[in-house]
Amino acid sequence: xxxxxxxxxxxxxxxxxxxxxxxxxxxxxxxxxxxxxxxxxxxxxxxxxxxxxxxxxxxxxxxxxxxxxxxxxxxxxxxxxxxxxxxxxxxxxxxxxxxxxxxxxxxxxxxxxxxxxxxxxxxxxxxxxxxxxxxxxxxxxxxxxxxxxxxxxxxxxxxxxxxxxxxxxxxxxxxxxxxxxxxxxxxxxxxxxxxxxxxxxxxxxxxxxxxxxxxxxxxxxxxxxxxxxxxxxxxxxxxxxxxxxxxxxxxxxxxxxxxxxxxxxxxxxxxxxxxxxxxxxxxxxxxxxxxxxxxxxxxxxxxxxxxxxxxxxxxxxxxxxxxxxxxxxxxxxxxxxxxxxxxxxxxxxxxxxxxxxxxxxxxxxxxxxxxxxxxxxxxxxxxxxxxxxxxxxxxxxxxxxxxxxxxxxxxxxxxxxxxxxxxxxxxxxxxxxxxxxxxxxxxxxxxxxxxxxxxxxxxxxx
Length: 462
Known about the structure:
Elements (H helix, E strand, L loop, with lengths): L1 H14 L3 E4 L4 E4 L3 H6 L6 E4 L7 E2 L5 H12 L2 E7 L7 H4 L6 E25 L2 E12 L2 E3 L8 E3 L10 H65 L3 H14 L2 H21 L3 E25 L2 E10 L4 E2 L15 E2 L5 E2 L5 E2 L6 E2 L4 E4 L6 E3 L3 E3 L6 E3 L3 E3 L6 E3 L3 E3 L6 E3 L3 E3 L5 E3 L23 H5 L2
Parallel strand pairs: 3-4, 5-10
Antiparallel strand pairs: 1-2, 2-3, 5-9, 6-7, 6-10, 7-8, 10-11, 11-12, 13-14, 15-16, 17-18, 19-20, 21-22, 23-24, 25-26
Helix pairs in contact: 5-6, 5-7
């Protein structure tokens, strides 16, 4: 009981943002708001104790100050706004595991994250007894959490910085938690009350069993007397006995006894009932900054922007996954396609020499077998196969880029042309249209003499 009273008193002055210090003998409370210490007949600073050792103001369940505080809490639930102050970490670069890149620039901003703290006074009333318990319930993002602000730099918050949108959801979570916290106490008291009630009900049942037994016995005796008087034809006596039976032993009189028993049992149930009252005495909004960090990363002249979220309360920082294989990253690589990736997915393009992840690689050249990125890869419009830039040729007639298998060397002008643009000249040699003169017949090269494929020496003049 003493600890419950102490918890209520300390919690009350904490909600008023007073300075509180405890020793083994008393609690010193300073900076009590003027309107409170004047209303309670106190001073700005007081010393209280709970052991009646003659030092300061003694408080127990019957003290005047305790009564005034309870009345104040019932009619004036307080609201508090607190801010946990966090500095932006100086070692942020060490918290971000970079592998093939470095931080070129850091920009930061913050947004607030919120806790709610609900201080609820629960009063148990039963058998002329009153017990009270004060619970502080912390809620974060709709979930009840363990809360303790003593290790943080807590300051008075500003109304313009905070939001109350989360309070309704948080309060619903706090009420559910309160039921969990009070269930054991309710069950304990209810068990005690049920035992006492059962004793009383049993006593009442025994008493009325005796009353009803006596009623039935007297009723039987009166019935016998009536029978005798009716046989003896004593009319006046029979009349009086009938009146006595009607007034004292009728069905209505019997029901009256049963109703009386029922009413007494119901009254006993009321006496042994438990009244539980929950009173919200303080709501505290606690907010703190969550840092959003915008990084500009450099990797061999290529820049990549990255957003990192750091929660200074939980020390949680954004966990990255590889854009390619989706595995969690212990080290961050950046490819030239702008993806964050793991080392296993990072590959060098054989053409441009830049590093790309699997998402940015086009595949293997069908001519030379080199792995190329999407920027260096080409698709031949004739055969539809993938090639690197170096394995593609430009037609001198159409300007189209095609693979070396889909173009040929004109034996007259040494120009590269598509096979479809070959014609047979007057001497029967397959040449380009420019060299074919007036002969414009396009030959189906698949049914004519085979066309020799150009060698690299012939193409590049080596």
